[in-house]
Please model this.
Amino acid sequence: MRTAPSWSTSTSPGVSADSIDLTVEQNVLTVHAERKPPVGDGAERVVDERSYGVFSRQLFLGDTLDSDQLTADYTAGVLTLKIPIAEKAKPRRVEVAGGADRKEINA
Model:
């Protein structure tokens, strides 16, 4: 069983950190952002390898993840999400009660 946080990365070069919107609703993480075209100097753009506009992605989170503790970092065009494992999903030791009240069964 995993005890380390889960993580996800997304490359989004050309996207401003201010335009990224993250929401979590019923274990579904939605990433919504907008990539705006660069403001040019009047030159005609013939070829461009990046698409521009609004986009969104959805990531379905398992019940074992603690979405309340999700953290996000956006550095150099890479969005990194860290989602810790929920306490209830981590392995734990269960004590076994009894043993002192043993009774012998005669058959």
Notes: Residues 6-37+51-88 form a domain with the Immunoglobulin-like fold (CATH 2.60.40.790). The longest strand covers residues 28-35. The beta strands are 6-11, 21-25, 28-35, 53-60, 71-75, 78-83.
